[in-house]
Amino acid sequence: ASERWALELLRSTELVGQFAVINQIGFQSLGLIFGSIGYFLFPIMFSRAGNLNHRNQFDNANQINNLYLLFNALLTTGLFLVFWFWGEAVIRLLSDEKYTHLASLLPYMVCAGGLFNFGQIYTNRFMLSLQTKLLLYPKIIAAVVGAVASFVAVHWNGLEGLVVAAVFTQFIYVVVIHITWLLGGKKTDIITN
To answer: At what angle do helices 29-49 and 55-94 cross, to 10 degrees?
Structure first.
């Protein structure tokens, strides 16, 4: 929400609408895709994790999650390329001709969306190992970085700056989640064997 506030306060309502177009096509569409797949995969992963009596239960469940992360990276890369080469056509198909000038921003919104969903999928490790309390830190850090980056970027360079801030924020989110996993997520007393 801070993106829209930053645009509204520092620029114009028109830019809020333009951001909504590229956000829906480039960012939110990935959430829909990965969320739908996640609803299918989560029960399978949690079934494999079981009660975590043996280390291989977590490893088997996490193996599915790792494949899901790979799929995320490949699909994000593919959509980045599609929007890089055919962004104007995609906007014409899904929106209106008057927004085709935003086509150059679509690949970067896909990148931001892909990073966000990569982070969300990565957090399954914490859920599978019953360590969800550790997710508090990445969420708070990413929210603060995102709000500050949004306002600074919009002030600096309007809509284009906001797109850069979105990519930066989601990159920080992934990095902080990974660091949290390395520092605390692997150390679990729940897994006994």
So the answer is: 170
pLDDT digits (tens, 9 = 90+) for 123-174: 999 998 889 999 999 999 999 999 999 999 999 999 999 999 999 999 999 9
8 A C-beta contact, residue 143 and residue 169: no
d(CA 178, CA 163) in angstroms, rounded, equals: 23
Output Rg (C-alpha) for the chain, integer angstroms. Answer: 18
Alpha helices (runs of H) in 95-184, residue ranges in sequence order: 106-122, 124-128, 136-180
Cα–Cα distance, 173 to 175 (Å, whole number): 6
What is the reported pTM? Answer: 0.91
Q: In Å, how far are 70, 97, 106, 148, 162 from 25, measured between CA atoms?
A: 22, 14, 8, 24, 16
Residue 37 in contact with residue 68, Cβ under 8 Å? yes
Q: How far is CA 155 from CA 27, 94, 141, in A?
A: 22, 29, 21
Of 123, 128, 117, nearest to 176 (Cα)?
A: 123
